[in-house]
Every structure is written in structure tokens, then in C-alpha cells.
Write a structure and sequence with these properties.
The chain is mainly α and 617 residues long. 41% of the residues lie in helices and 8% in strands. A hairpin with a 6-residue loop joins strand 8 and strand 9. The protein is globular, with a radius of gyration of 28 Å. The N and C termini lie far apart (112 Å).
């Protein structure tokens, strides 16, 4: 037998950190772990990396905002430094008194056979369903220096508006519908954002009395002066901007700032201008971004702003649909800071690359660039960018050339790239270009039905007759999305058939069959009636109003519904949007006028139907 000797040598791993033996041991241990254990470790590592990146970015943002000298945006021709820093001093005062219950009107309406759904699904217009009685305190914004050049801004002529009340039975019917909605809002949701008309309670979104403020100028237009005076008193005594809560810059601007400014222009009551100025000051922090493109969400108490929680980007339509209101505030106060901020946004977006004037629906507030591979649409998140190109040009006396050029180019893009025709009846509709720009989707939101009205307004101000022809055809398609439903109410989204052999022009999917009391088609009918004088548009509007009355009216107001395809089972959603009183009923009332009381050569309606004057420069 051979005798063999063995020598054992122990090498301490601690002295040889790079030892392959140690590496192999670690790898063996890793391979022994179960799939669940490995997945858990991967998850923890990912979370730690995310926290590190997020913390690092926040530190960079704070560092940037605290610099004494702000960086100027490249390409700025305005000469001012960017981004501005805004004062954040608060002065709280006493909370205001509540509602006088003795003035509530009786509710004698018959109930519709409707049941509330367990959960609201209201599209993109209403936020989380919160029931809050958050503490309120009024506060006074610190005064800013008045721009010495403010006197150069003049109104186009001397706009005077005189409203005589309903002129005919149709207008009286709409005014009656408004009073039914208002009395129930007053009774069950006074000072809150929205009425829930079936459960007869309220919904709080921003805690800014959205329905009340959205309704102010509607009451003046309809001659409801007693209701207006009571709402005016609430604004003076109760409207406060000190709730520690984020609000959406766009929605707050078009509904609240726009509503206050319109009420001031129509009534001359300075309480509305004072509140508008305070609100404008509190929202200016939204422009404190690296690029000057505003963040989507702003806290009115702290005046700080940030991107939405669901995305790093702002919606393109939202950052480009605040200009009319902030510019008007500058012209009224003589302080140019509001107009400078929003004009800068328009200039920045003007200089970005587009597809025949068409823009993606997302833009990053830090980079100032569009999100690559975003959808192009006339619907949600894209729509009012195009509307405000035209209306800004009109508001400034047709003096800002790039606004006109961008609008004309964009309408060319709509007509050549987004417009298609259906089978079998050759209806004209506006579709979407999906992310990447290669795929066309034959889908049109009810929101996109604002466009015929905008194009008709453009025609009135010198755009080609082809724009009016296009507008009338698309408006007809929009009307048919109402008329071809058994409820005579349009779904939120319609899909169109373009393939040869199709037997139906369009249809809606079950998840898109809700009607949110939207105004866009009615808005376009009003513009077309105003500009062409064709009373057919009035008749179409009256038919839509009948559908609203029959299928959305309940004893507690008017409700959005989940199903326009079945008149027996509409599935009410228990929500009355503020824009129903601010836009839908206002446009219906104006549509049925025998004589127009608004001069569209001197007045604009913002995207929430609030009246603002034109200026000569």
C-alpha cells in the first residue's frame, strides 16, 4: 500500500477579500436561496435605489431654488431673469359664518328612478372623493409693485354688457334648469366644490367652492340677480385660499381665477378682483421651475409646487390654458408679473419642434421639452392648447404674430393628419396619432367637439372659409354622437369605422359610455349659430337639452350617468360637475337667444366659458 500524507492549510477569508474561494462560496449561497427570497432581495435593492435617486433630485431642486442669482432661460427675449421667486407671507384671519338656512328654496321635483353607484368614475375632471371640513382662514396677499407700463393696455372699444333675462320659452326652460340645480347645490353643498345630487351631500376636491364660483357669471347672464348677490356675499366672507392642500394649476385657473375675473368684469364689484389677485399671487409658485414651464400642482397655503404624483410631466393643454386669465389679471392690476410668466410659457412652447403644428400631450417642467412618443390628440391633455392659441391672439388685439402662425399651422395639421371619414356615410371626425407618430387611432373624445366652435371663431376673425366648412362638418358628427344614442346623450369617447364594408359609422365601448354633463358640443353649436345664423344649430341644442332633462335630472339636481346606451339603465354616478352650471347651461342659454347679448368682437369666453374682454395690444 502506498502511504499518502495530507496537509491541511486554513486560509482566513478576512485577509483575502478578493479570494475566488470566497466569491464561489457567496455564489453557492445565492444559488441556494429560493425564488421568493431572491425576488424579495431584488425588490429591496430597487426600492433603495429609487429612494436614493428621489432624495438626490429633491436636494438638487432645493439647492437650485435657494440660489441668490437665478439662471436665465436661454433664448429669452424678454430680458427678465428666470425663474422668479415669489413671496410667501401669510396672514390668517377669522373664519366666516355659514349658510342662512331660512333662505333655502323648496324642492318639489319628482325623482327619477335612479340608484347611486357604489364608486364614482368621473374621468379626468374630478379628483379624489373627499369629505372635508378643513379649517379656513382668509388672507391678504402682499402687494407687489405696479408696472409703470400698465396704462398702455386698452380695452377694444368700451365693452358694455347688458343682460335682460330670458327672451323666449327655451331660454326660460334653461334658466329653470339652472335654478333647480342651484337650489339643490345651495341646500346640500353650499360653498363646497360639487353637489352629489342623489345622496344629497357634497364632494370636496380643492375646497374652493368650485360650483359657486363657476356659476357667478352664468347667474348674471341669466338675470338671476338675487342668487348672484348671495353668492357674492359668500365670496367676500368665506372664500379663502389657506387650506393646506394641493390644487391643480389649470383647473383652479380656468374655474376659480377665470370665474372671479369674469364676475368682476360683468359686475364691477372689486371684491372679485381682490380675491382674484390674491389667488393669482398664491399660484405663482407653480412657475418656479428650471425651464419656466409650470408644475401642474400647487399648494395655495405654502405656494410651493410640484409635478403630479402620477407622472414627472405636466399636461401640455394645462400649461398652455392659463394665459388668458393671468394676462387679464395683469391688465386689471397693472402688475406685469402674471402676464410675463404665462407669456414666457407660450414663447417656450412656440420654439419647440412640432408635427405640422401639432403637439404631444405631455411636457416636462424641468427640461421644458415634450415627452417623446406622446399621443397627439384634440381630446384630453391636448385640446385647449389649440383653443388658446387663437384666443390669445384675439385677446392681444391680433398683435402677437407667432400665436396666429402657430394656430394656422396647427389647423392645417388637424385637417391633413387627424381628420378622416367614416364608412358608410362619409362623416368627418378627428382621430389621434398614437405614441411614436406612426399609428392613427379612429377615436374621438367628446372633449374634441370644442374644435368646431374654435374654428368658427377663427373664421370670424379672418381665417379661411375652409375652416368654417370643416367646423360645420365635424359639428354635425359631434351632434350625431348624441342623436344616435337612445338617451340622446353622447358617450365620453366614440370610435369610428373607416374600413370599407362597415355598416355603422361609429360606436362606443361599455367603459366609455358615460356622460359627464359636458358642454363641448353645445359650445360649438353656439359659436356656429352666432356666426352663421343657422337656426338648425338651435334645434340640435334643444334636442340635447331634452336628453339632459329626461335622463340626468333628479330631485337633488342633475347627475352624470354611466350608460348612455340604455335609457332604462343609465346607472347614475351621483355627481354634478361645476362646469354643468358654468358652461353647459350657459352655452344652452346663449344658444337659444333671439338677439345676441355678447359681442364677440369685444369679448372672449375662456375654456370654462368665463367672459374676458379683448385688448388692443
Amino acid at each position: 500500500m502506498d502511504a499518502r500524507g495530507y496537509v491541511s492549510v486554513e486560509v482566513p477569508n478576512g485577509k483575502y477579500p478578493d479570494s475566488p474561494i470566497r466569491s464561489n462560496n457567496i455564489w453557492r449561497k445565492w444559488n441556494k436561496l429560493s425564488r421568493l427570497q431572491k425576488s424579495t432581495i431584488y425588490l429591496l435593492v430597487t426600492i433603495l435605489i429609487f429612494i436614493f435617486i428621489f432624495t438626490h433630485q429633491q436636494e438638487k431642486r432645493v439647492h437650485y431654488n435657494n440660489k441668490d442669482d437665478h439662471r436665465a432661460v436661454r433664448g429669452s427675449g424678454t430680458g427678465h431673469r428666470w425663474p422668479p421667486q415669489f413671496q410667501k407671507n401669510l396672514q390668517d384671519s377669522e373664519p366666516a359664518a355659514g349658510l342662512d338656512e331660512t333662505r333655502l328654496a323648496a324642492d318639489n321635483e319628482e325623482k327619477n328612478a335612479a340608484e347611486e353607484e357604489g364608486k364614482d368614475d368621473d374621468g379626468g375632471d374630478v379628483g379624489d372623493d373627499e369629505y372635508e371640513d378643513g379649517g379656513n382662514g382668509s388672507n391678504q396677499a402682499k402687494e407687489e409693485d405696479v408696472d409703470s407700463n400698465s396704462s398702455k393696455y386698452k380695452l377694444t372699444g368700451e365693452p358694455k354688457l347688458s343682460f335682460k333675462g330670458p327672451q323666449n320659452e327655451r331660454q326660460r326652460a334653461v334658466a329653470s334648469a339652472f335654478k333647480h340645480a342651484w337650489q339643490n347645490y345651495r341646500k346640500y353643498a353650499w360653498g363646497r366644490d360639487h353637489l352629489k345630487p342623489i345622496s344629497k351631500t357634497y364632494q370636496t376636491w380643492f375646497d374652493l367652492g368650485l360650483t359657486l364660483i363657476d356659476s357667478l357669471d352664468t347667474m348674471l347672464v341669466m338675470g338671476l340677480n338675487d342668487e348672484f348677490q348671495e353668492a357674492r356675499d359668500w365670496v367676500q366672507q368665506n372664500l379663502q385660499f389657506t387650506t393646506n392642500k394641493d390644487v391643480n394649476l389649470f383647473e383652479t385657473t380656468i374655474r376659480v381665477l377665470g370665474g372671479l375675473l369674469s364676475a368682476y368684469h360683468l359686475s364691477g364689484d372689486k371684491v372679485f378682483l381682490d380675491k382674484a389677485t390674491e389667488l393669482g399671487d398664491r399660484m405663482m409658485g407653480a412657475f418656479d421651475s428650471v425651464s419656466g414651464i409650470p408644475f401642474s400642482d400647487v399648494n395655495l397655503m405654502s405656494r410651493s409646487a410640484h409635478a403630479p404624483k402620477w407622472s414627472p410631466d405636466s399636461s401640455t393643454s394645462e400649461v398652455t390654458t392659463i394665459q388668458l386669465e393671468f394676462r387679464d389679471l395683469s391688465r386689471l392690476t397693472g402688475n406685469s408679473k402674471y402676464e410675463n410668466a404665462v407669456s414666457r410659457v407660450s414663447e417656450l412652447i412656440h420654439n419647440l419642434e412640432k408635427d405640422t403644428g401639432l403637439v404631444p400631450i405631455f411636457i416636462n417642467a424641468n427640461t421644458g421639452k415634450f415627452r417623446s412618443h406622446s399621443t397627439i390628440t384634440m381630446g384630453a391633455r391636448g385640446d385647449s392648447y389649440y383653443e388658446y392659441l387663437l384666443k390669445q391672439w384675439l385677446q392681444t388685439g391680433k398683435t402677437v404674430d407667432y400665436l396666429e402662425k402657430d394656430y394656422v399651422l396647427a389647423m392645417s395639421g388637424v385637417m391633413t393628419k387627424l381628420a378622416k371619414r367614416t364608412q358608410p356615410n362619409n362623416l368627418l371626425f378627428i382621430g389621434e396619432i398614437l405614441a411614436g407618430g406612426k399609428e392613427f387611432k379612429p377615436k374621438m373624445d367628446e372633449l374634441a367637439c370644442f374644435l368646431p366652435g374654435t374654428m368658427a371663431l377663427g373664421y370670424k376673425n379672418g381665417m379661411p372659409e375652409s375652416h368654417l366648412d370643416f367646423a360645420q362638418e365635424v359639428a354635425y358628427t359631434c351632434f350625431l354622437t348624441f342623436a344616435r344614442q337612445p338617451t340622446f346623450l353622447a358617450p365620453e369617447i366614440s370610435y369610428f369605422n373607416t374600413a370599407k364594408g362597415s355598416t355603422k359609422d361609429f360606436y362606443c365601448k361599455p367603459n366609455d359610455s358615460h356622460y359627464l354633463l359636458r358642454p363641448e358640443t353645445i359650445e360649438s353649436l353656439w359659436y356656429l349659430y352666432y356666426i352663421t345664423g343657422n337656426t338648425t344649430y338651435q334645434d340640435w341644442g334643444w334636442q340635447i337639452f331634452q336628453g339632459i332633462e329626461k335622463y340626468t335630472r333628479v330631485s337633488g339636481g342633475y347627475t352624470t350617468i354611466s350608460n348612455v346606451r340604455n335609457p332604462i339603465d343609465t346607472r347614475p354616478k351621483d355627481m354634478m360637475e361645476s362646469f354643468f352650471l358654468g358652461e353647459t347651461l350657459k352655452y344652452l342659454y346663449l344658444l337659444f337667444a333671439d338677439e345676441h347679448e355678447i359681442d364677440l368682437d369685444k369679448w372672449l369666453l375662456n375654456t370654462e366659458a368665463h367672459l374676458l374682454p379683448m385688448y388692443d395690444n
